[in-house]
Design a protein that fits this description.
Strand content of chain A: 25-35%
Oligomer: homodimer
Radius of gyration of chain A: 15 Å
Number of strands of chain A: 6
CATH topology of chain A: Thiol Ester Dehydrase, Chain A
Number of helices of chain A: 3
CATH architecture of chain A: Roll
Structural class of chain A: alpha+beta
CATH class of chain A: Alpha Beta
Strand order of the largest sheet of chain A: 1-2-4-5-6-3
Shape of chain A: globular
Distance between the termini of chain A: 33 Å
Largest interface: A-B, 47 and 47 residues
Chain lengths: ~160, ~160
């Protein structure tokens, strides 16, 4: 991750409190993964170091975590893209929050358990309430999974439950 | 779930110890979800009740858990299908264990947090080392997600790391 990315704000840190409880990326979920997603130039990046129990078989990360990271990296990337498309900074009003409509994961190689996992996203479409993100997940610089997320703006009815 | 399904053995209970640590479905992972997958006639079924912290926004289940359940239900279903294709009971030698090559999830409706979630699988292909499973995930009888898993026999090199 470049210094630029490390210095830019994580979109999850500006989610309104009532939509900041996601197990994967909510800053208010103390049990969760607390994924953070930032711009790095025209790509988005999130880094997560799995816990020892996140095993598939000993030595490898289970697929559900890989899918979870790509899912939340996708919705975080979609929010960043939504703000950029509106030429606004993340955190300005009104807030943008996305949910996943479709997730596809190709498990390219076994994911070693130990090193930080870096998700990178490329925004391939921003159209109305829909954002499409193509992603890679890498360990030690080697791509272990490829993902694609179709994200849509969170329905008002969902957010108002929060 | 029918009484038949409840009475049939879960495939995860006969995985060899060295491949029974998966966070999603390993009986030896004390922190994990411990998903159990059984036959119910020609369908496979797994049931899991999310923990309170598995939120997306309050009141709903986060997508990563939905993906995790469909992923592990897929590999468990693949193992059951592999044994059946060889006209063997789960747990007979040699053991069959699968990993996911591709996972697709369509999030059909928001998943309520509270009721048990039931994953059901239909085996659509068993060919060599590959099994394809089409899945639904339901809450209170309503389908909230559809999934498709392409599973392949676990490479010997992975299992021997265990």
């Amino acid at each position: 991750m470049s210094e630029h990315a490390a210095g830019s704000p994580a979109v999850q840190d500006v989610y309104p409190d009532d939509v900041a409880h996601c197990y994967g990326c909510g800053r208010l979920n103390e049990h969760g993964l607390q994924l953070k997603t930032r711009w790095d130039g025209d790509e988005t990046v999130s880094v997560y170091t799995p816990r020892p129990e996140h095993t598939a078989i000993p030595g490898y990360v289970y697929g559900g975590l890989v899918a979870s990271l790509l899912d939340c990296h996708g919705t975080g990337s979609a929010a960043l893209a939504g703000y950029r498309a509106e030429e606004r900074e993340p955190g300005t009003e009104p807030p943008l929050r996305y949910v996943t409509a479709n997730l596809t994961v190709d498990f390219v190689a076994p994911t070693p358990l130990g090193p930080p996992l870096e998700a990178r996203g490329t925004i391939v479409e921003v159209k109305g309430k829909k954002v499409v993100v193509e992603e890679t997940l890498s360990a030690d610089g080697v791509v272990v999974a490829r993902g694609r997320v179709v994200a849509v703006r969170m329905p008002e009815a969902m957010a108002s439950q929060g």
